[in-house]
Amino acid sequence: MNQILEAILQRRAIKVFDPVEISPDTREQILHAARLAPSSFNIQPYRFYWVETPQMKNEAARLCFGQSPAATASALVVAVADIGSWKATTESELAWMRTAGFSETKIAEHDRRAKSGKWFFIQGWFGVFGLLKWTILRALHFWKTMGTLPVARQGMFKWATKSASLACQNLMIAAEALGLNTCPMEGFDGRRLGRLLGLSGKYHEIVMVIAIGKKSARHVDHPQWRRPLAATVRIV
Prior knowledge:
The protein has 10 helices and 5 strands. By secondary structure, it is an alpha+beta fold. The chain has a domain at 3-86 and 154-232: NADH Oxidase (3-Layer(aba) Sandwich). The longest helix has 25 residues, at 153-177.
């Protein structure tokens, strides 16, 4: 079987881990795989916080309600939707393009797109500009076939969460392929965990916390059930 498919098919949410050290090289491979996930406009609107120091990990596990995966993991990876990093990201990509052999035409095109794209992110005082954009797009939609852009703050977080989730899946598959195991968790105190990590409520929202480590012999794999394809997929 293809190794990638094998990693996908054998991945399970592990509830109890044995204490193992994750080397810096393995950690970097896992996080590198995560950041290679596709993202809208290549904005990569997310951050990962790898929590491994005992004091920080214990406190983060407590804020995950002391769940067994969080308490026994070698590290916790906090995935954060970040709607405030777009400007730095587009500027960094533009600087990279200038050194990577792109033509002046391509660089100018990217620069124009980045400058016009800023209106996608700007919300204005109390979200007034976001509301105005939403109103204009809704009006245009009556006459034109078009997508409804996530122009308000809540929609922006939803948009960023999609990219963050793709990166999380890459991370978990990479960990599995490297002989580690994971457990994604949605149970956590987002406000206090965000404060522990120094997040800004204006730009950041925690998507999930991923416990990572080595599956313990105490963990029991139960038979796995998924809906049959016929109940999940419709081919039209």
